[in-house]
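Batch queue: ligand-bound targets. Current item pairs a single chain with flavin mononucleotide. No template structures supplied; prediction is de novo from sequence plus SMILES. Inputs echoed for audit trail.
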Amino acid sequence: MPRILVTYASRFGSTRDVAAAIAEELTSAGFDVDVLYANPELDLSKYDGIVIGSPAYGQNWLPRASLFVIGNAERLANLPVAMFTTGMLGVKNPKMALREHNEIISTLSEFAPAVSPVSTALFHGSFDRKNLPICLRIMDRIAGTPQGDQRNWDAIRSWGRKVGDLFTSHLRHPSSGLDSKEE
Ligand SMILES: Cc1cc2nc3c(=O)[nH]c(=O)nc-3n(C[C@H](O)[C@H](O)[C@H](O)COP(=O)(O)O)c2cc1C
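Prediction returned. Tokens below.
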């Protein structure tokens, strides 16, 4: 049974839950799946495919997730890889959010050019102003950042199934191509 690692960075836990839902879909598709917090020292030698995700913070992935990709670039170059971003920008401005997501992925590929995801996706995340320091809460209220859990589980799970299909065909006939998907 092919083994898949779903690895993620997360500050407040919402991206961890997204990773877990994707892992459930991959498990249902017949893969043996581990879900682990991103760590540059994870042993990737036992995996046949990797899904990596991070929330956007300040228009970037969290360093843990970026460093995972860059630090493991050589190994990831030889595996099917899928990447996802969570964030709140897309709730109000989907086009700008997709641009932000694509820029994050293309910056990663500048640092890890041999890593070519078979699919990438952007999902709405979850945000609670109460998690911010008080001075930032005031700025955030003025900015009108959407609040609450905006995660679209149908979109997340559907992408998880799609990644399962792509990994299956990649493992049967190794080839790669990047496609990008918005919620
Ligand atoms: C300080 C801060 C900066 C953020 N920057 C962005 C951003 O640049 N783009 C975006 O789409 N969402 C942004 N967000 C929203 C988070 O990506 C979103 O809340 C995400 O779901 C959090 O994931 P986590 O619970 O796994 O940490 C930001 C949130 C905070 C608190």
